[in-house]
């Protein structure tokens, strides 16, 4: 077959590329491992603590915002209903909520293998990075409290 100039591709030999680029070897080489293990225990705890605090702080703020939005929306709906602006069919709402619960339970039972796999992978990650994980949990709790 005849190839045109547009269809030509360069083949990249990864072994040659790794020899020329030392950073590639550090990241993907045999001794690469988790990068965090290369730091001291104190550094790992600080890294985990700072990221945990940030996650906890954001979780707290987003949670408050979501609770305020849901509560405020429900309050406005009640005020509008009481004032006569809106007629709410509460029987229908209850029926729809029960229907949604049943569908959620069916889907939750089907998703169990994926959830178990995720839990196993998370547990393995925590075991391998126990120092960073413990720092993260402590920081997360502090972030929630602040």
From TrEMBL:
Topology class, membrane: Multi-pass membrane protein
Pfam families in the cross-refs: FUN14 (PF04930)
Annotated keywords: Autophagy, Membrane, Mitochondrion, Mitochondrion outer membrane, Transmembrane, Transmembrane helix
Lineage top rank: taxon: Eukaryota
Signal peptide: none
GO BP, sorted A to Z: autophagy of mitochondrion
Location (main, coarse): mitochondrion
UniProt family annotation: Belongs to the FUN14 family.
Name this polypeptide is given: FUND1 protein
Gene assigned in the entry: Fundc1_1
């Amino acid at each position: 077959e005849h190839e045109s100039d547009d269809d030509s591709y360069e083949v990249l030999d990864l072994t040659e590329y790794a020899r020329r680029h030392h950073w590639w070897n550090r990241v993907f080489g045999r001794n690469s491992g988790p990068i965090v293990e290369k730091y001291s225990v104190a550094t790992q705890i600080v890294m985990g603590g700072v990221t945990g605090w940030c996650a906890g702080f954001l979780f707290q703020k987003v949670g408050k915002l979501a609770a305020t939005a849901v509560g405020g929306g429900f309050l406005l709906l009640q005020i509008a209903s009481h004032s006569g602006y809106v007629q709410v069919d509460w029987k229908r709402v209850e029926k729809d909520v029960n229907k949604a619960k049943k569908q959620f339970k069916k889907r939750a039972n089907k998703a169990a293998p994926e959830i178990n796999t995720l839990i196993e992978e998370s547990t393995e990650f925590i075991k391998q990075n126990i120092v960073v994980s413990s720092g993260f949990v402590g920081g997360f709790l502090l972030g929630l409290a602040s």
